[in-house]
Amino acid sequence: MSVAGSVFFSKDCHLSPGRFLAAMEQELQNSGVKFIWGAEVTGFEKESDRITAVKTTQGDIASDEFVLASGVWSDEMSRELKLALPMQAGKGYSLTVTQPRQLPELCSICTEARIAVTPMDGTLRFGGTMEIAGINETINSRRVRGIVRAVPDYFPEFKESDFTDIKPWSGLRPCSPDGMPYIGRTKKWKNLTVATGHAMMGLSLGPVTGRLVAELLAGEKPSVALPLLSPDRFA
Ligand SMILES: Cc1cc2nc3c(=O)[nH]c(=O)nc-3n(C[C@H](O)[C@H](O)[C@H](O)COP(=O)(O)OP(=O)(O)OC[C@H]3O[C@@H](n4cnc5c(N)ncnc54)[C@H](O)[C@@H]3O)c2cc1C
To answer: Domains in the chain, please, with CATH?
Structure first.
């Protein structure tokens, strides 16, 4: 390995997001949650300081409470509600090798190359880059090559050619100007809670954000003080 040293974080952990979400969906369905897939939100019905329904491509959905958690699309979606949730899309890529030559047990961050390496159910995922190029999920092959070229420095058994047939995945991280998520109620709308802007940490922070949102919706005191995360801080 062409590395000078490394730091071991004993409390670091990792998971397979696909399996996590499938289990979560099942659990929620068992608890009576109804999913409406493929329904695009196109607007809102409002009455004074309350939202009464979301307009979707599958009809209006009325509710007592609404949670806005639409990632990089939150900024645009919140404009009709006259909120200010400035957001940049931080595009990242990952390549998952299904039969890796080396399969480390631990995940690692290769600092100079800015790539994260995660074993997932016998596969090995290499992810990285932070490309600020608007809401655009196209693949920039130069960026992907940057990830592939760096791998053998850290995992010498790999060759660049191992990645030739692997389809890169791209995703857009929702990044706020101050790097903090937007979590909480807004001054304008009494029955809206915002939960977005987690940038590079959405999977890790999802559980605590979920807990905070549940506390807010239940009228309880949030277990983490929310002023720094206020969705009104750029209004
Ligand atoms: C390469 C890469 C690696 C990453 N690695 C990690 C990691 O190791 N650990 C970690 O914690 N995080 C990681 N992240 C970050 C994490 O993926 C994000 O923070 C997280 O996905 C954000 O979740 P979200 O639910 O807020 O937004 P999204 O996952 O973007 O979900 C928003 C949803 O809203 C939907 N939506 C938008 N507009 C509408 C509309 N009008 N109507 C209906 N639906 C709509 C979208 O379709 C989407 O499903 C990584 C990201 C990338 C790109």
So the answer is: 65-87+177-229 (no CATH), 88-175 (3.30.9.10)
